[in-house]
Amino acid sequence: MENIQRKHEWRDGYKVIEVFGTMSELQQQQVLELWASAGVVSPQQAQQRIHQVVCMILDPQGAVCGVSTAYLDKLRQGGYTWYLMRMFIRPKARKTIGLPALASRVTRKHLARVSDDTQNGAKGTAVINENPGLWKKGMHRHYVKAGWNFQGKRQDGQEIWICPFEGEWAAD
């Protein structure tokens, strides 16, 4: 896999940058500060997740306003290995039309390339939606349009969605 950081420009000056395996110390510090200031994860979780960052989202001023992370795990559905993806975007940036979808798409495509290069056996990307705001029918339509497939709910009510890299349900 190439050791470069691809940049994807978005409206209003936002950028999504692929950084998986290429983060500088400064970039790592910026992500840790984002998580700490937003109270998203504990300091211990932040140290574990920093090496799982796939994409950084920059606001028009160049500050980190979001990240996507992923790690390999097995889901009970089928027992296959998937990249479990998480995303946090500050509320103001989250309201930028299409930015969360772009970050998700860039993350999935990057992980598909990594999976091809490393032959790690990942079937695709999966998300477990912890946010009840994402459980609405309108959000379901966005997920389906973006290539995600609803797999059901966990016992705690959180939704499971998958997006295979190849095959019948693969996103383009």
Structure description:
The chain is of the alpha+beta class. The chain has a single domain (7-164), classed as Aminopeptidase (3-Layer(aba) Sandwich). Helices cover 31% and strands 29% of the residues. It contains five helices and eight strands. An eight-stranded mixed sheet has the order 1-2-3-4-5-6-8-7, sandwiched between helices. The longest helix has 20 residues, at 99-118.
Structural class designation = alpha+beta
Arithmetic mean of pLDDT: 89
In CATH, the topology is named Aminopeptidase
CA-based shape = globular
Could you tell me the number of beta strands? 8
Helix content: 25-40%
Radius of gyration: 15 Å
CATH class: Alpha Beta
Brief synopsis:
The protein is of the alpha+beta class.
List the helices and strands and how they pair.
Blueprint: E1 7-9, E2 15-18, H1 25-38, H2 43-49, E3 53-58, E4 64-74, E5 81-89, H3 91-94, H4 99-118, E6 124-129, H5 137-145, E7 149-153, E8 159-164
Parallel strand pairs: 5-6
Antiparallel strand pairs: 1-2, 2-3, 3-4, 4-5, 6-8, 7-8
Keywords:
172 residues; alpha+beta; Aminopeptidase; globular
